Amino acid sequence: MILPSTDATIYNRVRYACDVEEGILNVCVVASKFARANPQYLANVALKVNLKLGGRNQILEKPKLGILADGKTIVVGIDVTHPAPGSSANAPSVANIVASVDQWLAQWPAELSIQTGRQEMVADLDRLFKSHLRRWHSKHGVYPANVLIYRDGVSEGQCKIVLEEELPALRKACQEFYPATLTKQGLPRIITVIVGKRHHTRFYGTKLEDADRSSNSQNGTVVDRGVTEARKWDFFLQAHAAIQGTGRPAHYYVIYDEIFQAQGVPPPFTNVANVVEDLTHKLCYLFGRATKAVNICPPAYYADLACKRS
Questions:
Q1: 95 and 113 share a domain?
Q2: CATH value at residue 68
Q3: Which of 78, 128, 213, 258 is the most interior residue, by most CB within 10 Å?
Q4: Which residues, other chains included, contact 111 with Cβ-Cβ below 8 Å and sequence gap of 6+?
């Protein structure tokens, strides 16, 4: 859709007509920018068009995908968005679950539900996850052996909710599909990682060669000691190169793991924590609308975008 201006009213109306009323895939461009035919702008539009047509814009070589390389692991992103301050008392919260469909991690279909306002736990989680399991099975003929979850929008004090309410809901969804022979083997194996963005921790290189040209820590910087929890498994990852201002690392909490601690440590890594940190960093290069690494891993990023769009 070529729009006459950046007027939000026109944009929102076009989006509503296409997304809600007609169910038409759409990409919007502004006429003045489109007419200039700037290669970088057109390339950015092409990225979005290709994704919406079911394509993939970038891939990682199999050796860099770790456990994802064999196509037996579904990667899931979960987020809940709440009403803005000042909204109606009856305004609902929106929960979204996105999930990969293959080892290339290019397409992330979303399932959403409307729930009670300000409720952080995903109320309809088992039904939403079943849809993703059906989609995976229709493509592969089997159900995934591993489930890698990145849960966004949860504070440190709410991790208990994820473990006591959301994890059992995921198990319940799996029990309805997986045969007893697989469940007795402990399948699917699950790992849950909380993704934190709202914090005030920043890192700076102590030497000039340790910083990028913006004086930020180099992309790929991991901090997992000194300022992290002594009795918990967490780490900070600054995966992106900040274009402007101070780079903000993402904070990851591994609150439940049946996969990595059980499989051992593959070379060249020296411990399980490094395996998870490396895989999370690699995922940041697979955000379809960018040609560089993004600041949080795509499962959480896409879930957040889906919530805002919903």
A1: yes
A2: 3.30.420.10
A3: 78
A4: 96, 97, 98, 128, 131, 132
Report pLDDT for 247. Answer: 86
| Domains contained in the chain, number | 2
Read off the pLDDT of residues 202-235 as tens digits, 9 standing for 90 and up.
988 888 888 887 788 888 999 999 999 888 999 9
- DSSP code of residue 217: B
Note whether residue 148 is domain-resident: yes
Q: At what angle do helices 167-175 and 125-140 cross, to 10 degrees?
A: 50
Give the single-character DSSP code of 23.
-
Cis, bond preceding 92 (omega within 30 deg of 0): no
CB 67 within 8 A of CB 105: no
Residue of 190, 103, 148, 150 whose CA lies nearest to 298: 150
CA separation, residue 192 to residues 75, 183, 204 (Å): 10, 19, 29
Q: Which residues of 73-82 are buried (b: 16+ CB within 10 A; e: fewer)?
A: bbbbbbbbbb
Query: What's the sign of the alpha-carbon dihedral 54, 60, 61, 64?
Result: negative
Where b means 16+ CB within 10 Å and e means fewer, 122-159 reads: bbebbebbbebbeebeeeeeebbbbbbbbbbbbeeeeb
* 93-97, 198-202, 232-236: least confidently modelled range: 198-202
Taking the model in full, what pTM does it have? 0.95
